[in-house]
Amino acid sequence: MQPKTAALQRLDWEEDGENRSARWRSESGNPPPKRLVIGHDQMTADHAYRLACEGTAILWRGDFQNARQLLQAIARRIDNKPRKAKKPAAEVSPVDAFNLHRLAQSQRGRTLAMLILPLDEQYAIPLRRAPDVKDACEEAYGPPDEASVVSLREVLGLIGAHEWRKKGVEIAALGERIHPYYGVFSPVRGEYIDLVANQPLPSRELAFEIGAGTGVLAALLAKRGVERVVATEVDARALACARENIARMGFQRQVEIVEADLFPAGRAPLIVCNPPWLPARPSSAIEHAIYDPESRMLRGFLDGLAAHLTPGGEGWLILSDFAEHLGLRTRAQLQEWIDAAGLKVDGRIDIKPHHPRAADKTDPLYAARSAEVTSLWRLVAA
């Protein structure tokens, strides 16, 4: 079968002698597949793997739980595929290791995305033993409207995100749970939160936070006694997420979440920013919390900071040196940007990450992860 695509948002195909059409959904930005076959419970994992590697999508009509097992089997075949002879690790630069890792992850994701499912007009999956995903889909896609098709991998991600949103992430420094939305970076790496929790405040009158995300740092500043916090965000999901978290914790009188690119109007004695840590191009919308192409947000924060600080005010830049260990940015380059922005470093506190990958020697980026340090840079006008 040779499906046709329309405006990269619809998938048209032929099935049982009929022409069919549905909306194509992909939060990763994958285009609709150009080739499609119908998959049933009798399909073998080897056959499915070959089709997926060729770029042929499998529209599943069998049992949902069998589809999950098939996806796992395809993943095992990808992970166990014999690799071409590689250069010794000592001959591979950190930048090359990072780029090869991203390429491998991207290829793996595209292959796994070839197993796709139907969703009806109410976000029900019309398959045997399928879970109820209506709430999870509404949280990611908005109100239901029309029948669609989506990769099983994405559906499982929606389910996981829905559970995270319900359960929340325990933040010890807050004594509260933060509930992340789908596509909003979850504060699971708590070391940067501890840095903000332990640094003496230059003022309790007013603070700006640039890039609110889930609202965790704005809430922490309010809990520490800052009388007014203005937190900015441009992403619609993050705006809604931060506002809900702030309201849930009862900080809405202290904290205002506003839509703005970087700085709000005015000046403040404390301005906090935790930008994406890696200067690389995101491959999908939900990667913007991780990757900052050409360090645009970092440089925008630095360049505008002095003009938004009150006399004697401090800017707190929370940044990992992971990019430095990967060869994506140097410490000298960061210092040049600080100097060029009319700023100087008035102090810095560091903390080592505690996440499991920092100790996983099988990780291709282990050398960089094990050396990583997260810092809070105290910046003031020069």
TrEMBL record:
CDD domains referenced in this protein's UniProt entry, alphabetically: AdoMet_MTases
Record keyword Methyltransferase present: yes
Chain residue ranges for the region called Disordered: 1-33
Domain Methyltransferase small: start-end pairs: 207-320
Superkingdom classification of source: Bacteria
Gene3D superfamilies assigned to the protein according to its UniProt record, in alphabetical order: Vaccinia Virus protein VP39
Protein name, as recorded: Methylase of polypeptide chain release factors HemK
Pfam families: MTS
Coiled-coil stretches noted in the UniProt entry, renumbered to this chain: none
One annotated GO biological process: methylation
Keywords: Methyltransferase, S-adenosyl-L-methionine, Transferase
Record-level Gene Ontology MF annotations: nucleic acid binding; protein-glutamine N-methyltransferase activity
PANTHER family: HEMK METHYLTRANSFERASE, MTRF1L RELEASE FACTOR GLUTAMINE METHYLTRANSFERASE
